Structure formats: C-alpha cells, structure tokens
C-alpha cells in the first residue's frame, strides 16, 4: 500500500514561536495553517508600538532581550528577518548595578563584544508575523481558538469567534505554540503520562515606562545609559530597566505580593519609591509614575516543566512546554531554539513527511531536549536571587572577577556552524563563565553549561577556601609567635 506523504501542518498560536515554527515548517515543504485566538495581532502590535505610555494589558511585557540562541534560531530560518529585527534592537553590553548606597557598578556581559539586544515585544511579534504572512505556503487564521486535540485522529476542534462557529481541522503535524496556559499541553497531559509541574513565584511584577528626555536642541535623549541593562537590587525586591529604540526605558518592579499589597495609595507608594530608588525617582514625573504603578497590570511569574512534549504527531514548543521566570532573559531565546532543534531533527530525515518518521522525530526531540529545558528553568530561578541581591555584594564581584580573568587567559573552542548542529552535552575545553555559555554560546546545551559552571564554581570556591585557610593559618601562627615572645619576656 502506498503511504500518502503528510503535508498539512497546523501551528497553534501566532506568538513569536508560532510564527518562527510556521516559517521553519514551510521551508521543509509543509503547507502550514496558523490558528490564533486573538484578532489580527498586527493591528494590536502597531497600536502598542505607537503608545508610549501604557502597556497593553494583554501583552505580558513591553520589551525583552534577544541573545545568541534566539538570534541563531531566527538566522537558521531566514537571515533577512534577523536583519530587520536588529534594526529595531538596542545592544546592551552589560548590566549597570545601582546599589542602595548610591554607588554604581558596571558589569560587562562578555569579552569579545557579545551583547544582548533589547527589543519591543510587540515589534518582535509584528515583524515575525509579517514575515510568516508573506510566505506562500503559510496561512494565518485569526479569531480561531483551539479548544481540544484528538490525538488518535489528528484533528483539532476550534471555535471561530468571528462567525461563532465550531469547526474541526485535520493535520499531519501539529505544533502547539500556545503559550504558558496551553490547551494543547492540557490535552497532552491527559493523553500521555506527562510529568508536569508548575510553580508560581512569590514575586509579581509591574512595568513602568520611563519617558525619553529632551536635550537643548529639542531632540529626544535617553535618561539612563542606553548601553546597559539597569538593575536596582534591593534584597527582597528589585527594579530592572531596559532601553527601547524610541529612547524610553521599560522599568519592571519585581517584588513580593505583600510589598505590592502594602503600597496601594500614592501617599504610601511615593515615599517608598523615593527611599529605595532615589536616583531613578528624580527622572520621573511623579504623577505619571503613580498612574503607571497603579494602572498598569500586575502580573504573575510562573515556571512550568513537562515531559514528554509530544504524542503521535503533536508537539508543544516554547512557553507551552516550558515557562520560566525572566531573570536570565532566556524564555524566548530558549523557545526559539526549540524551533531550531526540531527543524534540524527533521532536516536529518530523508522523508520528514512520513507519519512514522514524524513520530520518531518528535520522540527524539522529547528525549533529547528535556534535560536542557529543565536546566534553563532552574538557572532562571537561581538568577532571581543573584539579580535582586548577589550582584551588589563583594563576594559576587570578586568571584565574577576571577571568573573573567580565567576566561580571558583561557583558550576556548569557537562557535560551530549552527544551521546543522544541535547543542549537545559536549562542552569545549577551557574556562567559560556560565553567563557567557547560556547567553552567547548556543553550541553548548543548557544542561552541559550548567554542569560545567558547577565544576568551575567548585574550583573557585576551593581556591577561595584554600586561600582563606592559608590566611587564617598565617594569622594564627603570627599570633602564636607574638604571644610566645611576650611570655618569653617574663
Ligand atoms: C516580564 C517578562 C520578561 C521577559 N523577558 C524576556 C527576555 O528578556 N528574553 C527572553 O528570551 N524571554 C523573555 N521573556 C519570556 C518570553 O516572553 C516568552 O518566553 C515568549 O513570549 C514565549 O513565546 P511563545 O510564542 O511560546 O508564547 P506567547 O508569546 O505567549 O504566544 C502564544 C500565542 O498563542 C495564542 N494562543 C493561546 N492559546 C490559544 C488557543 N487556544 N488557540 C489559539 N491561539 C492561542 C496566544 O494568543 C498567543 O498569541 C519574558 C517574559 C516575561 C513575563
């Protein structure tokens, strides 16, 4: 019997991962339909771009940072899209830590000019959406909410909210890129014995827009150094600010729910803000600051872990498979990397449209990707403590200094061609700081990076312990000889 080649792929969700997945599949010869529950996101994104004051309550954050993993993933699908994205991105060379005592410390992200790129979320989504919509074998259907999946018959049940009708669609391959509260994941949980966990962080966040300044000639200017991501670590809570291309900054206050609950009125909020962020406060118009704080949405942060990510011909990617807290700036980068990894697994097959091959590829993806996804979720959580407390401490700065010295004198293997390579368990020799491996070395898998960094940290700790023991030993010997001399004098 002749097996008909599978041709029809459905992608659920037209967020960044949905759009990139659709383009990657189209390149592999699939006819792709993207179903998105919202109305045309292009209109919403344009609206967001032209609004300088408030975030759209349906968007979770105004801007985010792209680093090498996200960049490599977009590049693998279409280099020209990457060029367009970069036109709207602001490069960040490092972080600037604003300590409570008023001192400011600059911490470079990496040697060799590697940067993070801050870009408006709405704009990123818009550019990817436009790129996907312009591909001949991709069609995007808005106002279509996926309600359930039938894994045995490869069908999706949808609700078209424009016509108020239900419909059923058949697929040969389905990618669930429907975000943190994924319907596809919900159904996968029932159909597979999925191991699943979710954890809400005790901290919420609120975003506040820092407007641009104006110079003597009337030109718009940045009110903070635009080459850096700014952090105000205050122990239990922290403020982060990232520049936008229009010379504004997006600030995000991350704090325990109890702190937000204790600041309901302007008379309480403003003195509190002035106490903890005096340098930042002086840049705001107080009325606008209070308005933003009170009116902008207060959002939660969730970590989800799942395993496996597929059943039959259906798979979840991006936040649908792994939501993480944003403190490593990797949620989207990792999500875009999912697309690159899956595409490479398909490219390695001669007959990627054959149903048996599809199941085998998805199986391999679930099996090989899991350790990396868990590792980055954990690293993101650990980074929360670093960002709100450690980065301002001497012990962190000394360790980072030693880390960077060893990196500078170490020979490390260079990047390989990523269009065919999946980051795996092998790590290059030499000393590479964890931040550099995670953000700038997409050839190193997250879990391999985590393990290598743990070994390096143990070494720094034991050298530190050794030096500490030596100094205590020397001090003890010195004290002993002084006492001895004194006693001998009597
Ligand atoms: C405060 C904050 C800051 C962040 N900063 C960074 C950063 O600096 N760097 C970084 O890499 N990541 C960052 N992230 C993470 C990043 O935002 C996410 O990882 C990324 O948006 C995930 O993209 P996605 O396409 O998987 O999901 P989403 O962007 O959530 O898109 C899902 C899409 O699916 C649609 N959908 C949902 N359900 C259905 C349905 N039933 N039917 C049809 N359509 C549906 C939705 O409408 C949406 O369009 C941050 C996150 C937060 C919260």
Automatic annotation (TrEMBL):
Main location group: mitochondrion
Gene: BNA4
Species of provenance: Mycena alexandri
Cell compartments where the protein resides: Mitochondrion outer membrane
Lineage of producing organism: Eukaryota, Fungi, Dikarya, Basidiomycota, Agaricomycotina
EC number: 1.14.13.9
Reaction catalysed by this enzyme: L-kynurenine + NADPH + O2 + H(+) = 3-hydroxy-L-kynurenine + NADP(+) + H2O
Protein name, as recorded: Kynurenine 3-monooxygenase
Summary of the function given for this chain in its UniProt record: Catalyzes the hydroxylation of L-kynurenine (L-Kyn) to form 3-hydroxy-L-kynurenine (L-3OHKyn). Required for synthesis of quinolinic acid.
GO CC annotation: mitochondrial outer membrane
PANTHER family listed in its UniProt record: KYNURENINE 3-MONOOXYGENASE
GO molecular function terms noted in the UniProt entry: FAD binding; kynurenine 3-monooxygenase activity
């Amino acid at each position: 019997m002749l097996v008909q080649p599978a041709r029809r792929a459905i992608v659920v969700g037209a967020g960044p991962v949905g759009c990139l997945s659709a383009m990657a599949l189209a390149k592999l010869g699939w006819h792709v339909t993207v179903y998105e529950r919202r109305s045309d996101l292009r209109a919403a994104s344009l609206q967001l771009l032209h609004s300088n004051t408030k975030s759209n309550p349906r968007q979770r954050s105004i801007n985010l940072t792209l680093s090498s993993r996200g960049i490599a993933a977009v590049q693998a699908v279409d280099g020209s899209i990457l060029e367009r994205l970069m036109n709207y991105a602001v490069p960040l060379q490092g972080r600037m830590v604003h300590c409570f005592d008023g001192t400011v410390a600059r911490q470079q992200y990496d040697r060799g000019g590697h940067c993070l790129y801050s870009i408006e979320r709405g704009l990123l989504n818009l550019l990817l959406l436009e790129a996907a919509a312009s591909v001949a074998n991709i069609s995007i259907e808005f106002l279509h909410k996926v309600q359930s999946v039938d894994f045995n018959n490869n069908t999706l049940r949808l609700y078209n909210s424009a016509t108020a009708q239900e419909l059923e669609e058949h697929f040969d391959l389905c990618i669930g890129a429907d975000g943190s509260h994924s319907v596809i994941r919900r159904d996968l949980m029932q159909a597979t014995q999925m191991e699943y966990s979710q954890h809400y962080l005790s901290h919420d966040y609120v975003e506040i827009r820092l407007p641009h300044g104006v110079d003597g000639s009337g030109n718009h200017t940045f009110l903070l150094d635009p080459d850096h991501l700014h952090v105000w670590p205050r122990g239990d809570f922290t403020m982060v600010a990232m520049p936008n291309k229009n010379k504004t900054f997006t600030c995000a206050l991350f704090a325990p729910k109890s702190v937000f609950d204790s600041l309901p009125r302007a008379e309480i909020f403003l003195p509190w803000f002035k106490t903890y962020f005096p340098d930042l406060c002086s840049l705001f118009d107080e009325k606008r600051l209070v308005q933003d704080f009170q009116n902008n949405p207060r959002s939660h942060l969730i970590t989800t872990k799942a395993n496996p990510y597929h059943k039959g011909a259906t798979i979840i990617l991006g936040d649908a498979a792994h939501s993480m807290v944003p403190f490593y700036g990797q949620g989207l980068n990792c999500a875009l990397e999912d697309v690159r990894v899956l595409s490479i697994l398909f490219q390695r097959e001669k007959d990627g449209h054959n149903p048996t091959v599809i199941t085998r590829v998805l199986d391999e993806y679930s099996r090989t990707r899991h350790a990396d996804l868990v590792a980055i979720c954990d690293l993101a959580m650990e980074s929360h403590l670093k960002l709100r407390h450690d980065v301002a401490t001497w012990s962190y700065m000394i360790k980072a200094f030693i880390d960077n010295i060893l990196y500078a004198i170490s020979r490390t293997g260079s990047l390989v061609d990523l269009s065919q390579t999946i980051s795996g368990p092998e790590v290059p020799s030499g000393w590479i700081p964890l931040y550099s491996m995670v953000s700038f070395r997409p050839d190193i898998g997250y879990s391999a990076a985590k393990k290598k960094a743990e070994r390096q940290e143990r070494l720094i700790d034991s050298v530190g312990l050794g030096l500490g023991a030596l100094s205590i030993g020397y001090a003890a010997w010195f004290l002993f000889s002084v006492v001895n001399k004194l006693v001998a004098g009597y």
